Amino acid sequence: MKKTGGKAVAEALRDEGVDHVFGLIGSAGMELFDALYDEPSIRFIGVRDERTGTHMADGFARASGRAGVVIAGQNGPGATNLVTGLAQANAAYSPVVALAGSLSSAHVYRDAFQEVDQQALFKPVTKKTWTVPQAKRLPEFVNEAFRTAMAPRQGSVALNLPRDLLAESADFDRPPPRATIEVSGMCVPTGARIDAVASLLRSARRPVILAGGGVKTGRCHAQVTRLAELLCAPIATSPGHGDAVPCDHPLYAGQIGPRGNAVATRLMREADVIIALGTRLGFNSTFYTYDYLSPAASIVQVEVESTAIGRFFPVKHGIVADAGDFADALHAALGNHNSEAVSHWTSTFQKERAAFVADRDLKSMTCSDLIQPGRLFRALREVAPPEAMYTLDAGTLCLQATDALNYRQSPALFSPLDFGLVGFSYACGLGAQLACPDRKVISLMGDGGFGMTCSELGTAVANNIASVCIVMNNGCWGAEKAYQRDFFDGRYLGADVPNPPYDKLAELWGAKGFKVDRADQLERILDEALSCESHAIVDVAIDPNALYSFRRDAFKHRSAAT
Question: For residues 9 and 31, what is the distance between their CA atoms, to the nearest angstrom?
């Protein structure tokens, strides 16, 4: 039976197991949207902007472990709006499949209405980009898009769908089998390599396991903690992946590096063996210097992507493997390992970690009514449910939250990571909440970032998405204002942001709105917002002077000059 290309794409999505699609309708993709109307197993979430729709698909993908799907129905401007979201997802190795309506084949290179070279547009910001050449090949390309997005290392892909192919009727071949990519078991380390690492650890006195994004993506925290327990080794995590293992594990140290904590970073500076699992040892962890890890340490780096191994720092052993498979193999090779030699190292760390946590709580309790970021984070640690998931934005306030929250059930932390995108968290949280309706999602935003994306309040309310967004409102672009204060003599330009009352804006959209003006209101109002069972916005007045310059390294020339 003949069917339209749009129908074939919708059926291909169904065959891939897709149950949520985010998108904005447009004339180039109308055949596809009409076909989705007849697919009851696929829930279409209409968004207000293609960029934020891509962030929702990104959050859905990271939370569910499956590909997130976004459709830009309009060629030209609809497609260009995808770029920021695809770049963000690709930088975070998040498997997002973007379907973009494209110009009719006969109009290409004729300066047609809304014409832009979408193939060239998406190429730099995706893992791969295709333009479908024939209608009968539409299912094949959909299948290939999912396979590519989910294959290690995961990433975003874009598929351009010319509108004439979506409208064309054809006899389609039997759809290819659903794209199933299993990372576990794909790369099994050999016995000789494992034995060499085991031998190294038997003589170690200050071992540390560094758990990165590969541990979280692979959902292998149980294997990693089991190995740590055998070694009696602390577990530090790379920035943005503080949820790689549960934070209440006694060997948990938290996040390292310039955005981590002093205890975890000291471990990395003093370790004699570092087992780096599923991490590139990249910018956010190290700033590419030995300031955050010991130059004398023997590094064992385990990654599914061979080009990541030893790229920034020389390694003793570089192993292409899944982090969970490696942890299991190393655990078996160590046998009845005696960890007595490292017991002092680890017990000292545990005492330091306990003192750090106690001091963090003490410092967060201020007498002033002006709300400090740390006071908000303490309130969240106290009232948020243990299964809570957090999405963070870029910017100084959210960066301060990265290592200050409780991540008890992995995955639980979703941040912009290397792309550092402001305006990411709110929409990402909507997608994550749809992926995990039984877990409460809490999105932290600065007031500037929320102002970029608050139109998606309409999406949240229309689709009954019961996430909670906390707007940390300090009336400015905090990171940049901090740099202007600390390095440019307080010459403020464009730093201040006038805002409406976001709690009232939420109510106008039909969501629940809450306002926090004093620190003593935090626990009560946050608890109300988390318990209201509908979409909620909490506008929290943050001390406008609670600014911090994270990238002090980038302005050394300014500090030297002054």
Answer: 10
User: Checking DSSP bridges between strand 536-541 and strand 512-516, what pairing results, if any?
Assistant: parallel
CA-wise closest residue to 251 among 340, 343, 328: 343
Closest CA to 511 of 558, 450, 560, 466: 466
Domain with CATH 3.40.50.1220 in the chain: 191-351
Q: Is the pTM of this model over 0.90?
A: yes
Predicted local confidence at residue 184, as pLDDT = 53
CB neighbours of 163 closer than 8 A, spacing ≥ 6?
27, 28, 29, 31, 75, 101, 102, 103, 104
- Sheet containing strand 317-320, edge to edge, reads 252-255, 235-237, 207-211, 273-277, 298-303, 317-320
Q: What is the DSSP string of 311-370?
A: SSS--SEEEES-HHHHHHHHHHHH-S---GGGHHHHHHHHHHHHHHHHHHHHHH--SSSS
Quick one: 191-351 is in which CATH superfamily? Answer: TPP-binding domain (3.40.50.1220)
* Cis peptide preceding 176, ω within 30 of 0: no
Specify the pLDDT at position 395: 84
Q: How does DSSP assign 366-397, residue by residue?
A: -SSSSBPHHHHHHHHHHHS-TT-EEEE-SSHH
pLDDT of residue 173: 78
Report the pLDDT value the prediction gives residue 367, as an integer from 0 to 100.
67
What class, spelled out in words, does domain 3-170 have in CATH? alpha beta
pLDDT recorded at residue 221: 97
Residues of the chain with pLDDT under 70: 175-189, 367, 559-562
Q: Which part of the chain has CATH 3.40.50.970?
A: 3-170, 365-553
Residue 172 DSSP class? P
- Cβ atoms of 46 and 23 within 8 Å: the answer is yes
Alpha carbon of 531 to those of 404, 528, 534: distances in Å? 22, 5, 8
Topology of the domain comprising 365-553: Rossmann fold (3.40.50)
